[in-house]
């Protein structure tokens, strides 16, 4: 199954995302900051990234820009509690494949991840 990297500083959210994805058969790594996320993308070589907007240091949009420079084809799902239309517009303009708002239910999470991987069942 595909490798997923979660870049999320909220430990409860991170744990929830990890559990849902692992139960579904995904290989999952997670980190707490954008800087760690960029390093993990280089080392872990994920097939999809779930990226929080609010991170310590650089925000998710800054991290997204760097990810897309380094690995343009890497699917990135921006996951945030900030349902601001301007943030959504900017995230999609920077190359986010999906913009999802927390909380996200387990089936939606799996559908979105499978969708960006091109393996959605329909």
From TrEMBL:
Domain (Response regulatory): residue spans on this chain: 3-117
Residues of the signal peptide: none
PROSITE patterns named in the record: RESPONSE_REGULATORY
Keyword Phosphoprotein: yes
A GO BP annotation: phosphorelay signal transduction system
Key words, A-Z: Phosphoprotein
Modified residues (4-aspartylphosphate): 52
Superkingdom, taxonomy of origin: Bacteria
Protein's recorded name: Putative transcriptional regulatory protein TcrX
Species the sequence originates in: Calidithermus terrae
Classification of source organism: Bacteria, Thermotogati, Deinococcota, Deinococci, Thermales
């Amino acid at each position: 199954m595909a490798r997923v990297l979660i870049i999320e500083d909220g430990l409860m959210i991170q744990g929830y995302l990890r559990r849902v994805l692992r139960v579904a058969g995904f290989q999952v790594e997670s980190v707490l900051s954008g800087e760690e996320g960029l390093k993990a993308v280089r080392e872990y070589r994920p097939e999809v990234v779930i990226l929080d907007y609010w991170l310590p240091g650089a925000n998710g949009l800054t991290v997204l820009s760097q990810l897309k420079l380094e690995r343009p084809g890497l699917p990135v799902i921006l996951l945030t509690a900030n349902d601001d239309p301007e943030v959504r517009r900017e995230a999609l303009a920077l190359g986010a494949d999906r913009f999802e708002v927390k909380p996200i239910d387990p089936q939606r999470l799996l559908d979105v991840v499978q969708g960006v991987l091109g393996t959605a069942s329909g």
